[in-house]
Amino acid sequence: NGGQGWESSEEDFRKLAPVLEAAQFHVEEAILHARVPILRLRHQGKEVDLSFNNKKALQNTRLLKAYSTLDPKVSQLGIAVKLWAKKQELCGASTGHLSSYAFTLMAIYFLQVKY
């Protein structure tokens, strides 16, 4: 996707839909008019968010991978905290709550301060 904005993302998502369906991804929600348009998908029981042209998310993912490489407790605690937050319905930037990334950063901060 060389374009910017939700119009080009919507077009990209529509082109990708048959590929996702063939790979047995189920589209749970399409949030196309957000600042960063995303598709919320489910595949084999796992939730997946898909976006285009989101360099910040790529940098965030690399940061989390670096922390997880340093200490396996990072990913273990991060997953536990995210699952807890989702179960308590506290997770979701689109609904005015903290994002799952923010909860993961809090878990990392806890590990930095306590260990």
From TrEMBL:
Protein origin, superkingdom: Eukaryota
Poly(A) RNA polymerase mitochondrial-like central palm domain boundaries: 9-68
Upper classification of the organism: Eukaryota, Sar, Alveolata, Dinophyceae, Gonyaulacales
Annotated organism of origin: Alexandrium andersonii
InterPro entries: MTPAP-like_central, NT_sf
GO MF annotation terms: nucleotidyltransferase activity
PANTHER family in UniProt: POLY A POLYMERASE CID PAP -RELATED, POLY(A) RNA POLYMERASE GLD2
GO biological process: RNA 3'-end processing
UniProt-recorded name of the protein: Poly(A) RNA polymerase mitochondrial-like central palm domain-containing protein
